[in-house]
Specification:
Length: 193
């Protein structure tokens, strides 16, 4: 009877572990971008960080950095310490005004350790309206040293613009007390007391 109970407990534990594994995504590699808060006309940088689990290590990456070209423009890119330490190189190609293709690879089988993968340098338009703008990563492919694809999670960045041109609808419209409220009754109570 005791062995039967142990088998039931073990079977339930295995079933629970399988349900848990299937219900939550497992990512070997996570790419994360910085957030920025800027005024129009600012030059700024966005760091891209890489983090991988202990069993799956990336050796090469391809991805697109996507921006709103009406608000910001690409300036340059630089390889980060994590990629440089693994002997990797960075290649880039401007696909259109809002999309920059990045390839990080090398003629070696060294893994890229956790840390700063690269930095993108951008310029914010002088006429950028106030608001939040996404800097995204798309078409992301990551492989290990044997060129097998790795599951990836991407966390994009944002740029908050402040001190610039209000967006349409911001600061406009009617509200209580805007320049109104003057009128009859001013000064009527003077002299009483």
């Amino acid at each position: 009877a005791r062995q039967a109970e142990e088998r039931v407990v073990t079977a339930r534990s295995i079933a629970f572990a399988c349900v848990l594994a299937l219900s939550s995504p497992v990512f070997a590699v996570t790419l994360t971008m910085d957030d920025n808060m800027l005024m129009p006309g600012a030059a700024f940088s966005v760091g891209i960080l890489i983090e991988s689990d202990e069993f799956e290590n990336p050796a090469g990456l391809l991805f697109d950095i996507v921006i709103d070209p009406d608000v910001m423009t690409f300036d340059s890119v630089a390889l980060g310490a994590a990629a440089m330490n693994a002997g990797k190189q960075l290649s880039m190609n401007l696909l259109d005004e809002g999309t920059l293709r990045i390839i990080i690879s090398g003629f070696n089988v060294l893994d890229i350790e956790d840390g700063e993968l690269m930095t993108a340098f951008l310029d914010l338009s002088l006429s950028a309206p106030n608001g939040f703008y996404v800097i995204g990563l798309s078409n992301v492919m990551v492989s290990d040293a044997d060129a097998f694809p790795l599951p990836i999670e991407v966390v994009g960045g944002t740029v908050e613009v402040y001190g610039g041109i209000p967006q349409e609808g911001e600061g406009e419209g009617e509200g209580e007390g805007e320049g109104e409220g003057e009128g009859e009754g001013e000064g009527e109570d003077e002299g009483e007391g």
